[in-house]
Amino acid sequence: MSLRISNVDKWLGGVRVLDNVSMEVPDGGLIGLIGPNGAGKSTLFAVVSGFEPADGGEVRFADSPLGSTGPVARARRGLMRTFQVPRPFSKLTVRENLAAAAPGQRGETLWGAFFGAGAARAEQAAIRERADAIIDFLNLNAVRDSLAGQVSGGQRKLIELGRVLMAEPKMILLDEPFAGVNPVLQEEISDHIRTLNGQGIGFLIVEHNLAALSRLVGHLYAMDRGRMLMDGTPADVLADPVVREAYTGGAV
Amino acid sequence: MGYAYYVGLAINGAVEGLTIGLAALAINLVFAVGRFPNATTGDLMTVGAYAGIAVQQSGLRSLWLQGLAAVGASMALSLALYLFVFRALRGRGMLAPLLASIGLAILVRSVLSFFAGHDQYVFQLPIVRPIMIAGIPVQSYDLWLGGVALVCVLLVMAILFLSPIGRQMRAVADDLTLARTSGINVDRVYLVMWLLVGFVTGVAGMVLGVRTVVMPEMGWNMLLPAFAAAVLGGVGSPAGAVLAAMVVGIAQEMSTPVLGFTYKIGLAFMVLVVILAVRPAGLFGRVERVR
Amino acid sequence: MLAYITAVAIVFCIYALLTLSLNLHFGFTGLINFGHVGFFAIGAYAAALCSLNGMPYVVGFTAAAALAALAAWPLGLLALRLREDYLAIVTLAFSEIVRVVITAEEWLTNGVQGLPGIPRPFASLGIGGNAELAYLALVVTAVVLAILLIRHLVRSPFGRLIQAIRDDEVAVKALGKNPAGVKVRVFMIGAAIAGIAGALYAHYMNYIVPDQFLPLVTFYVWMAMILGGAGSISGSLVGAGVLIGILEGSRVVRDLLPNVMQVEMASLRLALVGLLLVLFVLYRPNGLMVKRDES
Question: Under an 8 A CB cutoff, do C231 and A76 touch?
Answer without folding.
Answer: no
